[in-house]
Amino acid sequence: MDWYQTLFELIDMRSFSNLWFWIVLAVMWSTISHYGLGVPFDMVLRARRHGGQYEADLEDLVRINTNRLLFIARISGLWILGFACFFLTMLAILGFLYRNEFAQALFLLGFPMSLVGLVSLSTARLIEQEAATGERLRKRLTRHRLYTQVIGMFSIFVTALWGMYQNLSVGPFGG
Predict the structure, then answer these.
(1) Nearest-angstrom CA–CA distance, 113 and 106
(2) Which of 13, 77, 87, 171 could form a disulfide with 73 if both were Cys (CB 3.0 to 4.6 A apart)?
(3) What percent of the chain has a predicted confidence (pLDDT) above 90?
(4) How many angstroms separate the CA atoms of 131 and 111, rounded?
């Protein structure tokens, strides 16, 4: 028995039956929904409750992250978009046309994250255009979190359905 076979017996490469895939999915969406635009949501809540220095810290962190995100988008946004579309298309074709389960899993992780990226870019642009501060800024960040959570819930639902379908069709009950 060679090391390659041993490794693949130890690590189940079927993504949807692997516990690590589901852990990654849960941690990814938990982290993304907590850190909207790179700002922890507890800072938004603390700024709402206490104001003052907490409000100033929130505005500074949002300004830094928003300027950084918009700078990257303006300088290399088309290249990033092109590569992202290429990789997502490649994963979709490999996964769903050629039935590669690993590519399906990566697509079901990556595609919703690209939507969150677009929502983040839109929110950053709106914050910059409005020069949002105070209550307006907190409202934008809360709305961004809500959109992220809706995308996450739909993504987890679709991924769970597809994973159950894959496990039933490939497992002991399927063909």
Answers:
(1) 11
(2) 77
(3) 82
(4) 30
